[in-house]
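Q: How would the structure tokens look for this protein?
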Amino acid sequence: MHMIDVGTGLAMLVRGADFALLYDAGTNDREERPMRVAAYLAAALGPSGDDLCVEDGPAPTGARVAIDHVVLSHPHLDHASALDLVVHCYEVKQFWDSGRVNDTVFYRELLAGLSKSTARYHTAADVPADKSVTVKKLTITLPDWVRFSEGDAIQLGEGAKFTILHAEAKPLKDPNQNSLVIAVELGGVRLLLVGDAESGARKDPSEPVGDIEAFLIDHHAKAIAANILQVGHHGSKTSSRRGFLEAVKPSLALVSSGPKMYGKVTLPDPEVLDALKAVGATVLRTDERDGNCPVIGRIGGDRGPGGCDSWVITVRSTP
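A: Here is the predicted structure in token form.
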């Protein structure tokens, strides 16, 4: 399992002996180009694609490398900016999206890329009769478009699967509320990926649980108990209410964040880090060396703040 340091954003790669799953791949940092993700995936999975998929040197040769599942938690730039390049460079077999349309250029380019690929496109939204959607005045047809539902379980490989715990396609006020939440089972270990799932406004973690976090407790209390938690909304006080963290009870908490401010705030919030430690979680962060990241050895070159604090977690199955 890899938490890729993309700066101010999120990208999680989960690998098994017979599968690969990518959950989000985006950043809000202008200097942080999508090539960071492509370079990391090339190192982890093998080079793939054409000359657009490498920053320097010859283009990869041979068949494109497969990524079995790509999941977009919600259509925000800091979760999706590199996904059009991923779709171009790799053979994505299944693409999962809430179906909440964001009328932006990056989302248009992602769907346009998917329309030219062989990937099956899954959404929680009803599939239009013509299997088309219009984004930024471009009508895009996705011929292999199917609908999924909350509770669906998808086999990944031997002893591994993921289950959809929250999926909302309606155009809610904030796409964070559409976050596609999945629980990934890896043998006897569970990973909870929540995207930017929130409890509500920025409040102390001691405040009552709300919004998606409350929904998960009410509807999937057993399924959210996880060994590893991808901390919601980059460690913001909009998420990670103490009641939710106590329900998850993670031993390992993964915080993907960077230097760009969200409004007037740089994440993660100290109160959230304290709350995670209070439930016994060890916290791993991608922003530890943002201000002092050496160029030599950085995957993806020397642009942007990311590249120094990626984490690789080895999960061993238990009987």
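The CA atoms of residues 165 and 174 lie 19 Å apart.

The first strand starts at residue 2 and ends at 3.

Upvote if useful.
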